[in-house]
Amino acid sequence: MEKLLPKLCFTLLILLNAIVALAVEKGVISGKVVEEVGGLSIPSAVISVYFDGSEQPIVTSATDEDGHFSIKNLKTGNYSIRVSFVGYAPLKVNGIAITEKDFDKNLGALKLTSDQNSLQEVTITVQKPPIEFGADGVTYNVGSTLLAEGSTATDVLKNVPMVQVDIDGNATIAGKRNTRIFIDGKPSDYMTSNIADLLNVLPSDAIDKIEVLTNPPSKYSGDGEGIINIVMKKGFKVGFNGNVGISSGLQGNGNTNANASYRGKSYAINGSAAYRYNVGKGDSHNFRENFFPDTTFYYDQYGAYRNHNNGGNFRMGLDWTISPKQNLRLSTNYNLNNSNSNSTTDLHYLSEERLENRLRNQHNTGKGNSNNFVFNADYDLQIDTSGGKISLGLNFNTNKSIDFRDYSTTYAQPNTSAPTLQQNNNNTGNRGLNVTLDYEKPIFNKRDRIEAGLAFNYRKNDNDLLIENFNFATQQFVRNNKLSNQFLYNENIGAAYASYNYRKVGWGVKTGVRAELTDVAFDLSTGQNYNVKPYLSVFPNLSLNRFYRKRYNIGATYSIRINRPRENTLNPQVNNVDTLNISYGNTNLSPAYTHQFDLNFGAFGQKWSFNPRLSYSTSQGVIERYRTVTLIPGSNSARSESTYDNVGTNNSLSLILIGNYRPTNKISANGNFSAIQSNYKSQLNSSLNRDGLSFRGAIGLSMQLPLKTAFESNLNYANNTNAQGRNKGSMTSNFSARKVFFGNRLNLRVTINDILGNRTNTFYNEGQNFRLENYSTNNTQNFTFSLNYRFTKITVNKIPPPPPPIKPQ
């Protein structure tokens, strides 16, 4: 009996623990999500549940059509939740304790505010879900991914669903030919002469989230077929907060960044600074077949380059609650970049029998620098107790860039052509002013909302190109009057819009219209003047959404967008860096209009989410780069001329699949796939009548490991078609591991980029009398080490100690 008693007790203890475990897993967190103004329920809001101190949500769910949610089968413990929905500030709630005696937690009504800059939101330190779905786009929460730490905006964009980044750092939405990049709702293409330069130095630690808007509302300009909006951190936490970081890679790249914020009773200030240094190198092989009625010959070109780039970014912001009805936000951004480049090309001239008859060697060097300054001011005034508000916005931007390059060309035997030496000095300046006036008001018992506004945008571009050729006889550079000129571009756009948002249980409808009057004039110093007749464009917008109880939603959208020809496509200045491959703009371009139709579906479970989208667009007067090859008179050579043109019409059908699966609270997998079928029709050239399939795929995996470590990886691939060929990319990969120390304040991260090999790119181009294949590779394979330290200092009003007792006399 004495021997059986311990065994019996042990068996009873196991049974008791099993019973308790079964009992405590009946924990429930429930509630209802509503709008703060009007109290209308919000269907399909994302509910993320966390263990206190955890960096990954254990459950992600969504509200039903009445705004209700219920998270079941939770163990005892302390939890936090985060409620989010596109267009509303997130609500973060902590201190939710589930015990054996109190396992059913009803949080009641959780109110979301539509003011993205509200200082009144509840804030705790928890991890956001990486991806949030909305009817008109997708939101990617930057702070939820290890790969975003210590990197730049360009690095982050490579892993955002529906976004692809080309080899030059330009980001586009899959299936969209013209994507605009916004920062905090302001167009960044007005802020810099090269968006890629800005994104390459913008630190990821200063970014809160990235919104991919496939159907921008009427409040936004009609330009572009989609918008990527980079939302910066506002730093609205009580007290003083911030972080400093440094990273370095084996390829010679590195960056440092710091940002800090302070929030007082009625104001918040924030600032950030970053510096980046990068070494780029690579090589290329270009093979072109030139075939004419009487002759066929080939160009076989090999090239290599090495670039050094460095730049800095500085930001400052102030948010001031002047009174309960007035708010003022000010921000400035200064960005600078410097570059040095060195490249060589060897061009082999091959006969029809593919025998070499001439060899050209070219050596190019270049130096460049640019600086950009932006000032934003936004003033909000609440005009009534029902939530009516007037907003006034001002954006002023200016940037300058200098690009100096020289080209030395020699010819090897058997041809003894004289060598040439040329210098190109290109000075570019931009100025812009954008003023907006917006009005919004809830109506019909605060159920619906109307919005209206006016906008004016002014832009000026000054591009001064000086080309000089070296005279070997006089040993002096002589101005090339034929190619040197100054291009001046002026643009004025006035706009007005109105929209109506309708909400009813299970339904959401947004409709609006925007009208824009465009006035453009540009000229050259050589005397040509171009005055485009002012034209009026109207952009209707419709979004319809239906929500169902079982965590499903379906939506449809329609809009018209415009692609305006601007200075980069209109400028007729000739780029003759390679005399056999020249390029220039086209002054005769017309605007291209696109009709877009989108159908999206969403399904959410406790451990998974799935969001397929189907999109169809038809475009008239598509603006794309167009190449022709002509025989040079009196020589056995052919010149390629590349320009822009309204190449014809394009009909495009896109299927986009986005999904997330979380089998445990420590493992999360996500993937997205895009397939776009394009059909080009052109009267410009019969070779442009073609069909093509583009596709992009990406998968990701993240894991929380013991000892406060984590792992994340991503694989991406893209293959795109255009009017004259195809751009075939290669597999790119990122692997990252992180270890945190000192109470999560210090973290060390190691990242391996493109472990499978350097990034390669293959481009095919075909015309009536040529075929071109270009292969290039870049030094993207890299090991990067990063350190980041976060600090927080919260001001606490201490109660003074009581005075000591008075001793009796």
TrEMBL record:
Subcellular location: Cell outer membrane
Keywords (A to Z) from UniProt: Cell outer membrane, Membrane, Receptor
Primary site of residence: membrane
One GO CC term, this protein: cell outer membrane
Record carries keyword Nucleotide-binding: no
Name listed for the protein in its UniProt record: TonB-dependent receptor
Source domain of life: Bacteria
Ranges of residues in domain Outer membrane protein beta-barrel: 382-789
SUPFAM superfamilies, sorted: Carboxypeptidase regulatory domain-like, Porins
